[in-house]
Design a protein that fits this description.
56% helix; 5-stranded mixed β-sheet; 12 helices; 5-stranded antiparallel β-sheet
Length: 507
């Protein structure tokens, strides 16, 4: 019994399988690929543009500030502002710059004391920061951007250029022209980036809106494309379904894509093969019916003839009974061959593999068949070129050799010959069954392994053939992973070559 938890687990598993089934759909995969290919570059482009804008805006703001601060720094030296901060011109410039960029400017002297603060909160205080000290020592300005708090910090050296002191003992006029830069102080400026961030937010919102519109458009395009691209495959599936239901019998054609052409070609080939198999099956059933019916019809005719004669002599009874026995024997042979053929079906037959002495097996079979050959004065010769042992099914191999040698005797001419040659290499053993018989027409060679096929039906009836022997023989050889070939000249004879591996390899 299933518990409720067990039922819930089953339902959950079914949902998961259903979701995975959707992802296995080619249409879904095409949709996902087109959608991602369309949306990912847009997202990357959006963030790239916004990030680039921010960097560019910060760089321009910093560069602009540094230029103006350098000018003010020169004014500070000119008005000796570090010693006397009463200059209203400099104070106005500093206030204007602070208000314009929503920032703060502190003027720091060489003793690291703040002589001017546009906020008016740090004047007289000592400022010791890494940026200020570095600027004081290296006489070079610098900048840094604090993304978290949204401001740019800029350090600008206040440099006074003075004449160099003359060397001891006087100096040359060139030495007197030399100047010496002296850092008198530092301007520490903090500039707000609120305006940049505000612009960035506006651009981000607009980009998001555009991205949503693109998302909707790409979703629609991906949906349409996935449906359009899958149409040919749907037509293939529909055409195959119609063939399966029996609504159409002609070859299907969907030439939209190379892939659909390959699928359709493969299906048409399969359909043609199935037609051939179906025709072969119908022919087989018709042949079986005919072959089984013929002896029964003959028996019925003979029996009716006897019954129609009230005072038939004993000799006539005996003659008719001999004919009836022959027809019954013929019926029995057909049934036995049919049973053997069914057992030889490669998909269901089992192989009883053992190590077989091929030389001894062939000798035994030929010894049993020589009396039949002597009745027609046919000589049967066995030539063994080496001792051969192989892994094989002895019963099926016996059937192969018997059928081929028996056919060579049956379809031979009076005072003819049959020669069996056994040879082997390191992988295979071969049996050549040659005869001096009536031969096989060239146009019949490709049909001789078909069930119930006979080259000369009238002659086959005379010698009792059923048309199943070679079909059974070929199946038995294929079950051993071997091969059979035939060459024949009409009126001169036939040679069958059987090649079978020495070691059986099961699949």
């Amino acid at each position: 019994m299933y518990t409720r938890n067990g039922e819930s687990d089953i339902i959950m598993h079914e949902k998961i399988r259903s979701n995975f089934k959707f992802l296995r759909s080619l249409k879904a995969r095409i949709f996902i690929i087109v959608f991602l290919v369309g949306i990912i570059p847009g997202i990357v482009l959006r963030y790239g543009i916004l990030e680039n804008y921010e960097d560019r805006a910060i760089s321009l703001r910093t560069s602009d500030m540094q230029n103006q601060l350098n000018i003010i720094a020169n004014h500070l030296i000119t008005y000796n502002y570090l010693a006397d901060t009463s200059s209203e011109v400099i104070s106005a410039e500093l206030e204007q710059l602070s208000n314009l960029y929503d920032g703060r400017v502190m003027v720091i002297n060489s003793s690291l004391k703040v002589v001017k603060d546009t906020y008016g909160t740090s004047e007289g205080k000592t400022v010791i920061t890494e940026a200020v000290i570095k600027c004081m020592k290296e006489a070079a300005g610098g900048s840094s951007y604090d993304n978290e708090y949204g401001y740019i910090e800029i350090t600008t050296p206040i440099i006074e250029t003075a004449a160099a002191e003359p060397a001891a003992g006087g100096g040359s006029p060139a030495d007197k022209e030399k100047r010496q830069d002296v850092v008198k102080g530092v301007m520490l400026t903090s500039v707000s980036t609120d305006s940049i961030n505000t612009t960035l937010d506006i651009l981000s919102r607009r980009a998001l809106l555009l991205e949503i519109m693109m998302l909707i458009a790409i979703f629609a395009i991906a949906l349409v494309l996935s449906n359009v691209l899958m149409k040919p495959f749907e037509r293939v599936a529909k055409a195959i379904s119609e063939v399966k239901e029996g609504y159409k019998d002609e070859p299907i054609s969907v030439p939209d894509y190379l892939e659909t052409e390959h699928i359709v070609d493969a299906f048409n080939q399969l359909q043609n093969r199935m037609k051939v198999l179906d025709a072969s099956r119908q022919e087989f059933v018709a042949n079986v019916s005919h072959e089984l019916k013929t002896p029964i019809t003959s028996v019925k005719v003979l029996a009716d003839s006897l019954l129609a004669q009230e005072d038939a002599p004993a000799e006539l009874y005996k003659e008719f009974m001999v004919d009836i026995a022959e027809e019954i024997e013929r019926e029995d042979k057909i049934i036995n061959d049919l049973l053997s053929m069914v057992k030889m079906d490669r998909t269901v037959a089992t192989m009883n593999i053992s190590v077989v002495d091929i030389n001894a097996l062939t000798e035994i079979i030929l010894r049993r068949l020589r009396p039949i050959a002597r009745k027609r004065d046919i000589e049967v010769v066995f030539e063994s070129r080496r001792t051969v042992t192989a892994e094989a099914d002895e019963v099926k191999l016996t059937l192969v050799i018997t059928n081929l040698v028996e056919n060579a005797i049956k379809y031979n001419r009076e005072q003819g010959w049959v020669k069996v040659v056994l040879d082997a290499d390191h992988q295979f053993f071969t049996l050549d069954i040659m005869d001096s018989g009536i031969g096989i027409p060239q146009d019949a060679l490709e049909h001789i392994y078909e069930r119930f096929y006979r080259v000369d039906k009238s002659h086959s009836r005379e010698i009792g053939g059923t048309g199943l022997g070679l079909a059974i023989t070929r199946n038995a050889i294929l079950m051993h992973r071997g091969s059979i070939k035939v060459s024949s000249v009409e009126g001169e004879g036939t040679t069958f070559t059987v090649k079978i591996p020495l070691n059986y390899v099961a699949t």
